[in-house]
Amino acid sequence: SDADGFIPTSAGGGVTFYGDGDPVGNRLTAPYSVTWTPSAAKAHTIRAIAVDDKGNQTISNAVTVTTVAAMPTVAISSPANNATGAVGNTFAVTANATASTGATVTSVSFAQNGSAIGAPVTVAPYTVNFTPASAGSYALTASVTDSAGITVTSSAVNYTATIAQPTVALTAPAGGATITLNTPTVVSATATPSTG
């Protein structure tokens, strides 16, 4: 912006962007943005210069970014997306992770609905146990951090925890048994309570 003038929309005005001191593009009208494709994996310094209607120039603060040949990757391999299970049942959450080019994986962290699950895992296999405390939907994610300091978060895997109803099954007498009239007979069953 220019308090006593304007940023002209003709050649010589607008905002010019620089990567490592080389111009990467110019934008004459707001919003001021260009697309930049770095060609080397290294640290880069990005700046912008605005020119007003009087020819005055202002240089932005420098922003340093690092480009890598390949970013880290991480994906949850278990449970499967849209899996379901009972409240209170513990299950393993496992992720596959790789580091950016030339780096190593330093940790993989897990989360459910944005809240951490356990401590970060520093060695493969990258697995934590999770026990849903209440019925509902859980968005499970994993984040990998590598030795270059780059962190990437996986796509969410959805898990639904349900309340298991109580169960009951007769164990005696056996089906098809013959019982003598007026004879006491033991009738038994197994049962489990509901969860949640």
Report on the biggest sheet.
6 strands, mixed
Number of helices: 0
Helix content percent band: under 10%
Strand content: over 45%
Q: How much is the average pLDDT?
A: 90
Q: Which term fits the overall shape?
A: elongated
Low-pLDDT residue intervals, each spanning 5 or more residues: none
Kindly provide the radius of gyration, computed on alpha-carbon positions and rounded to a whole number of angstroms.
Answer: 31 Å
Describe what this molecule looks like in 3D.
This protein has strands spanning 14-19, 22-27, 43-51, 57-59, 63-66, 73-78, 83-86, 91-98, 105-112, 115-121, 126-130, 136-146, 151-153, 157-162, 167-172, 188-192. With 196 residues, the chain is mainly beta. The strands form 4 sheets. Strands 7, 9, 10, 12, 13 and 14 form a 6-stranded mixed beta sheet that branches. Strands 1, 2, 3, 4 and 5 form a 5-stranded antiparallel beta sheet that branches. The chain has a 3-stranded antiparallel beta sheet with strand order 6-8-11, with no helix packed on it. The chain is elongated and about 110 Å long.
Write the layout of secondary structure elements.
Layout (H helix, E strand, L loop, with lengths): L13 E6 L2 E6 L15 E9 L5 E3 L3 E4 L6 E6 L4 E4 L4 E8 L6 E8 L2 E7 L4 E5 L5 E11 L4 E3 L3 E6 L4 E6 L15 E5 L4
Parallel strand pairs: 7-14
Antiparallel strand pairs: 1-2, 1-3, 3-4, 3-5, 6-8, 8-11, 9-10, 9-12, 12-13, 12-14, 15-16
In short:
By secondary structure, the protein is an all-beta fold. It is built from no helices and 16 strands.
Characteristics of this structure?
five-stranded antiparallel beta sheet, 49% strand, 16 strands, 196 residues, mainly beta, six-stranded mixed beta sheet, 0% helix
